[in-house]
Amino acid sequence: MLKWLSLITVLALALGVGVGAAIGASGDQGLIGIATEVEYIGSLWLNALRMTVVPLVFSLLVTGIASVANAAVTGRLAARSLMVFAVLLGTATVYACLVLPVAYTIWPVDQSSAASLVSGAAPVEVVSPPTVGQWLAGLAPANVVAAAAESAVLPLVVFAIFFGFAATRLPAAQRDPMVGFFRAVADTMIVIVRWVLFAAPIGVFALALGVGLISGVAIVGLILQYVAIACVVTLGVAVMAYLFAFLWGRVSPARFIAATAPALAVAFSSRSSLATLPLMVERMRDAMDVTPRVANVTLPMAVAVFRMTSPVTNLAVVFFAAAVHGVELGPMQIIAGGFVAIAISIGSVGLPGEISFVASVAPIAISMGVPIDLLGILVAVEAIPDIFRTLGNVAGDMAATVIVSKDTKTTAPEATVAAAP
Q1: So what's the pLDDT on residue 348?
Q2: Residue 236 CA, distance from chain mean position
Q3: Which of 15, 16, 300, 359 measures 20 to 30 Å from 421, CA to CA?
Q4: Tens digits of per-residue pLDDT, 32-81?
Q5: Domains, the chain, ordered by start
Q6: How confident is the model at residue 115 (pLDDT cuts 50, 70, 90)?
Q7: Which residue has the higher pLDDT, 354 or 60?
Q8: What is residue 417's predicted lDDT score, i.e. its pLDDT?
């Protein structure tokens, strides 16, 4: 159903831009007035997505951090897995922060097209980057409720991380119901997002109608540029994962490529790391001789808390929006964005990108001072970068598994290991 919805949404995007451009070119004030009113439907749809961001992000971070902390106490194998995840995730985030500015320097956004696109968006107040001292002082929210109301996402993320880790120190009788409550809140927000996404063709058409009315077909080139850069940069994460496997995991390139190819094929078609998990376990066991003890612990943990491409692709959206709006990103803004991107990746859910798109990208954009007006348009084409997200995540999961397998000695009989998922 979601695949068909994605296709229909892309067609609605193209139709909206085309109809809007045609109405704008006609100069018919009656039609222009109708198109302007229809645009408010798109604003309503986008606000319906935005209203889930704060509760969803906070709930996912609390449950995600609690899961990581609980996993760390299960033994040295789990702790080693988390360390490998952290290294790979941190490297991917640094890669994104270095490569994306270069990408938009080599292939800059067309300023005339960007100006016409921005002119159709809401007015944006450009805020000067904070000093180091101001940035550090702002990490801890004096009032968490006020921070959430003002969309101050970075301090909210910091509070959620501390809250999640603090929850793990409570007795199980207190911790488990609280974590269950936040998991239920997150699941409820996801249900709302699913409902809103059923109206995505209507919402995206209305938004695109307004953009086409102002910008004409100039938006098409900008969207193609975004998709191309996001896909290429995200594909680089998959290449990076393979290099980690070759160099750190010390596996034969030919053997690892052959072992992972079937899993990548499933990832490409399903766009779901979770759906690929059984095949990943089988390929690591049978084709790479990874012990069941390692495969049964590392891979489920990887699918639950480790998404190597998440910071990269989410930052690609933000850098594109910054380029379109003419927002200059300083070092402190990029560092803040990288920090939030990592935190969001840990708390995010293993769902297709269209569902988690706004909840994942909006906090990063807000923390970097980048407008989020374009998210309602870009979600229409998220299905394409999401393919590369999943490919990179699956490659990263299997690379992490062979690295952990190399550096972990089996200390328990295989017979005591639980069956694979």
Answers
A1: 59
A2: 16
A3: 359
A4: 888 888 878 877 877 787 777 678 778 876 776 676 565 555 557 777 88
A5: 2-416 (1.10.3860)
A6: confident
A7: 60
A8: 40
Model-wide pTM > 0.85: no
Tokens of 56: 């969803």
**3-state SS record for the chain:** CHHHHHHHHHHHHHHHHHHHHHHHHHCCHHHHHHHHHHHHHHHHHHHHHHCCHHHHHHHHHHHHHHHHHHHHCCCHHHHHHHHHHHHHHHHHHHHHHHHHHHHHHHCCCCHHHHHHHHHCCCCCCCCCCCCHHHHHHCCCCCCHHHHHHCCCHHHHHHHHHHHHHHHCCCCHHHHHHHHHHHHHHHHHHHHHHHHHHHCHHHHHHHHHHHHHHHHCCHHHHHHHHHHHHHHHHHHHHHHHHHHHHHHCCCCCHHHHHHHHHHHHHHHHHHCCHHHHHHHHHHHHHHCCCCCHHHHHHHHHHHHHHCCCCHHHHHHHHHHHHHHHHCCCCCHHHHHHHHHHHHHHHHHCCCCCHHHHHHHHHHHHHHHCCCCCCCHHHHHHHCHHHHHHHHHHHHHHHHHHHHHHHHHCCCCCCHHHCCCCC
pLDDT > 70 in the chain, percent = 79
Residue 339 has pLDDT above 80, yes or no: yes
Q: Which two tokens stand for residue 123?
A: 């007015």
